[in-house]
Amino acid sequence: MPSLRAASYRIKPFTSNRILSYSVHQRSPITRCLRPEPPALSLSTRMSAEHVPASPFQPGPSISLNSHHHDHSTSNSDLFLDLSTLNESIDTNRNDLNNYGLAAPTSSIEDQSTSSTPIPSSTPTPLPLMQIAILLFLLLTEPIAGFVIYPFIAKLVGELGITTNNDKNAVGYYVGLIESLFYVAQGLTVFHWGRLSDSLGRRPVILLGTLGLSLSLLAFGFTTTVKSSNTKESSPWASFAWVVFARSLAGFLDGNSGVEKTMIGELSDESNRARAVSFFPTIWILGATIAPLVGGALEHPAEKFPGVFGSHRVLLWTTYPYLLPCLVAASFCFIAFLIGWVFLKETLPPSRTIERDEDHEALPHTSSIDEDDASTPLLNGSRKIKEPSMRELLTRPIIISILNYGSLALLDIAYFSIMTVFFAVPISSGGLGFPPSRIGIIFSAFGIVSGCVQIFLFPLVHDKFGAKRVLRLSVMSFLLVFPIFVVMNSAAAARKTTANIDEGHTNAGVADGIWVWVGVIVLVCLNPLIDMGYGCSFIFVTSSAPTPSHLGSINGLAQTIISFTRAIGPAGSTALFSLSNEKQWLGGYGIYAVMMGFTLVALRFIELLPDDEVLPAE
Predict the structure, then answer these.
(1) What is the spatial order of strands in the sheet that 41-42 belongs to?
(2) Domain 386-618 adopts which CATH fold?
(3) What are the tens digits of pLDDT across the range 205-239?
(4) What dotted CATH number matches 126-348?
């Protein structure tokens, strides 16, 4: 009999009541705890597509074909005829089994005299690398579209003329407002994009979102400023409203992140999903590294490259000084859209119908179904799988998995926002006073180390320790990260006091103490562990789906929570950072006590997740 990973097939020996059973068991310790195993499914000659296992993480149904003995019943040849019919049904549904990670058998059911046990696969199932690569290329458009404006967004807001005397505090407020509105817009729509992908398909939703990113970037690039308005008076608030519109448009149209994660879940199975999801943080890191370089280098091109963007083109590039970097990013998004249009394949299975066997009642003795089996899904006519309702989505397993995902995202975005401010503000304000060039080098180190670890180590770490343990370690790392900020600032302040050097001129040199750089190195080393938590959280979110038809909606709901945490996290954490220094809460370090307290709450959420053990290979 061909080897079948985590599945068992058996025929019980003929007894007095001649019971023939065909059982499929697809269990995972994660899903076994997330939801109870469904009741046995009985049918006559066809396997219901609705009850094909949703994913390798979910238990499959037990399917029985019963032939009860009567004095006037059919002969053994009739029973073997039923077995042949069942084999045809299995052949028909083999492709459905493969779609969800089950390696369907290549031969008919064979007689087994002993009870079977799950046989795990010795090697991971090969990933469809072509489709994974196309999907990751489409995913790369999101960080590029998001991060390309970061180097110049503050400068753009200052040039709009909406602040008085170029007030830096006011500029920061409006910058935060722009980004918050982007995430609010995304949060309001991303769940509905996920639900739409469950009915319309993953491919059209992703392609529409990618095209929307391209259009929104072009709109953002055509922003005029007071400084660039050479021909007519420009209203500062009208320009600001245009910026808000362009960023909000990107948020409204971009529901790709959750849908792309759904596709990854459908393209992978239990044996290779950790490998597949490990690429997500890497792609984000790659985009977050490239996009700021493009944005910082190409803004105001007429001033930086007069020989190329001068002469008759000068009016375009001076009127719209931020068009070029946005145009480059928009072109990348449009190219990704074209590649996806040509090569990306749909992963959502076609609408299946559940058909009733017309001859079931006509042959009660040949192949009968227990009438009291409440799990029998045989209905008159046929019906399509319905879109999951909100009540179906708000179950305890789904809520717990998304709650953990959102907690990690909130901690991470707050940590990144604090770190960005911490590196830049003066020592006396609770930071290190690093110049932008040094900050860029540090962030590049973060990207390189995190990217390498995600690609090469995350699957091994996940297989060794399991998703829950790795997620716990990821969140626990914040208990070390936040005190490191205190150590670095205290060391820099002590060195500054000892050296008695003017902070305004040599602040960067003062912050070069050994403990400062030890702290930076520790942060760089801990960051990959934090990123691993996202892959583990995604595994739990995907595993909580009761059926494949729920995957898009669940990922959309998860992405909605992530969007709102990203809208709240940066503004809330940086405001607390400033208040801590202004009010001198705990010596100016009150923000870190608050974040450590929230870390303890997040660790408590993790304990609500099911335990997952690494299954031994046999």
Answers:
(1) 19-23, 62-66, 41-42
(2) Growth Hormone; Chain: A; (1.20.1250)
(3) 999 999 999 999 999 999 887 665 554 555 777 88
(4) 1.20.1250.20
